[in-house]
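User: Predict the structure for this protein chain, please.
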Amino acid sequence: MSAMAAARQSAQGAPQWCEGEIAGHAVLYDFSGLLYWPEESLLVVSDLHLEKGASFASRGSMLPPYDTAATLAALAARMAYWRPARVISLGDSFHDGKVSASMPQAYRSVLAGLMSGRDWIWVAGNHDPSPPQGLGGWHVEEVAIGALVFRHEPGAGRSPGEIAGHLHPQARIVRRGKAVRRPCFASDGERMIMPSFGFYTGGLNIRDRAFHGLFDNARLHAHLLGRDRLYTIAGRSLV
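Assistant: Here is the predicted structure, written as structure tokens:
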């Protein structure tokens, strides 16, 4: 059985993911905001921003302290679904460079359980450029696997095979006079920018100038995250 066929079988027909292709490699977009690459048994998550609430609290801005628990619970659920052999956390895994050391033991234990028995790669982000403390795994600036390159910030101009995060893409559509804006995967088939996975993370409309020049607009599609499925919208329909 091929890796793609196995992924289809494990999904049991549920509309919780859709197929895509990046630089010739078949990938699956998960409704939660994760990317799964069946050929490599690789799961990719971006912009967890763990302990953002704690980081804000340390600066006097109080937020409900539940973001890390909610983010890890959501990640654990989808990892149990896909059962990857490898995980790449695509930068800004922690909201600042200090909170990985001060994260409560309960959260560290959950994260250690998710990492156990898997190759885990931390990609450096602008919020967390240094390795997390006491959590293991490999820490890299970027990593290439086959024709795909995984980094936190997208490079300028066209970059075939790049999978990046950082920009927290969101897509906005208008139907019957009502506007909907949702986090999304943004891709033209050559490169892809992932949505942020963490709670308390905002987003940037992919019509924003920060995305200019990154995609072939004629081929751009947004895969919007729904409650339990994805909605694929052509770039020309976005506002």
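The radius of gyration is 17 Å.
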